[in-house]
Amino acid sequence: MTEATRIIAIRHGETLWNAATRIQGQLDIPLNETGHRQARRLAAALKDEPITAIYASDLARAQQTASYLASELGLAVRPEPAIRERGFGEFEGRTFAEIETTLPEQALRWRTRDPDFAPVGGESLIDLRSRVVGAAGRLAASHPGELIVMVAHGGVMDVLYRAATRLDIQAPRTWALGNAAINRLLWTHQGFSLVGWADTQHLEATLDDQITD
Question: pTM of the full predicted structure?
Answer without folding.
Answer: 0.94
